[in-house]
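Standup notes
- DV: blocked on the single-chain target, sequence here:
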Amino acid sequence: MKISLLGAGNRGIGYLRWIKFFFKKAEIESICDINIEKCNYASNKYKAKNRFYNPADFFKKPGEDGAIIIATQDKDHVKHALKAIDAGYKEILLEKPVSSDYKEIEGLLSYAKERYANIVVCHVLRYTKYYEKLKEIVDSGKIGKVLTINHKENVGYFHYAHSYVRGNWSRGDLTSPFILAKCSHDFDLFHYILSDDCVSLSSYGDLSYFKKENAPKDSAERCMDCKIDCPYNAFNLYIKDPILKSTFLKFMGPTITGLPKPNKEDKINALKTGPYGRCVYKCDNNVC
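- DV (later): unblocked, structure below
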């Protein structure tokens, strides 16, 4: 099968890596990303036949019989999925969440059915052995009827600061709200395991901690200029990294620099000038 990728970030490249691992004969037809360095790196690594630096040029090429992975930012998911259908793609893997606008989702679903396009949302946990077994147990009735679920989505302090204070999901007006960006997997699992529809949903919260009035006294605007001993110090988290050597933040170099293979100097420069080096108490975040 021919596969194209729109959005060569962490998720997009992750999907290509596993596709090439499991399906050696899969052909990478096209890769598109507005970041030229990332696009070139991914295109060279996965031997893509075509590379594009903006979606407008990418969608001029017909989808033919191929599949597409859409791993762009949340607000662009529906727009890019509609364009993919128009381009002729019949198999679409769409990153979650699809949208925070229910009418947008209904419109996309209707259009996909009209054009005979298959859309699979990247709720990857549903396909793991763990949750398949959990559903099997619930369906069997061995534990009786499920009346309540006590479920927690624990987000590491370093992950929260990275994604929801300094990063791409820090502003509700620019992207999905936290409850969708982080917890749409959980909602999908409830629906899958219980085989039942949602009747009502409520969510509450407020921005209570990561704001200027909670900044330590004499703290700087940026971590590289700060002398405060703080668990959110960007140099410690992204470069020194004393605790998390083999986990989340070790692999965030491309994210904070915009470069596919950054060195230590690239990371330091990014923390001096970019969004991931800002004091967590002095950002422009507005999510709870």
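- Follow-up: The chain has a mean pLDDT of 93.
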